[in-house]
Specification:
Blueprint: E1 2-3, H1 5-12, H2 16-24, E2 32-34, E3 37-41, H3 42-56, H4 61-73, H5 78-119, H6 123-126, H7 135-144
């Protein structure tokens, strides 16, 4: 099956200008053109899904281009491709850990202000002990109040 650039833009959720840029960068080495019009196949659509995943993982376009070049070179580049994904997994896991930490802090402050609203002030909260904090946000409290 073939798709127009507009159809692919709608399917993948990327602007047409981005698809043109990716094509200009050489990310679709086997894409056919009919009378100069790009004809995206399922191969390019699948590649776009991987490209989008790699972009979301924080990989720069020059490294995505390298990955796509490795794909063209064939099976001899399997180790490099695998190493790239291993590195991106590590990057994403680190970011997830960081964001989970941020989320815990946000949940703690939400709990804190819920209690302040219920109490009508922050007085009780100023002297609260770690064991009086819900377990799921206790680590954030302890990080913010290391001496308590």
């Amino acid at each position: 099956m073939t798709y127009t650039i507009g159809q692919v833009s709608e399917m993948i959720g990327l602007p047409i200008s981005t698809l043109r840029y990716y094509d200009k960068m050489g990310l679709f080495p086997h894409m056919k053109r009919v009378s100069g019009v790009r004809q995206f196949s399922d191969t390019e659509v699948d590649a776009l899904r991987i490209i989008a995943c790699l972009k979301k993982s924080g990989l720069e376009i020059k490294y995505i281009k390298q990955f796509m070049d490795w794909c063209v070179l064939g099976r001899d580049t399997y180790p490099q491709r695998k190493a790239l994904f291993e590195k991106q997994i590590e990057t994403v896991e680190t970011e997830i850990d960081r964001m989970n930490h941020v989320l815990t802090l946000l949940k703690y402050k939400r709990w804190y202000y819920t209690q302040a609203i219920l109490d009508g002030n922050e007085e009780r909260l100023q002297t609260i002990q770690s064991e009086d904090i819900p377990e799921e946000i206790r680590a954030a409290f302890e990080e913010l109040h290391p001496s308590v």
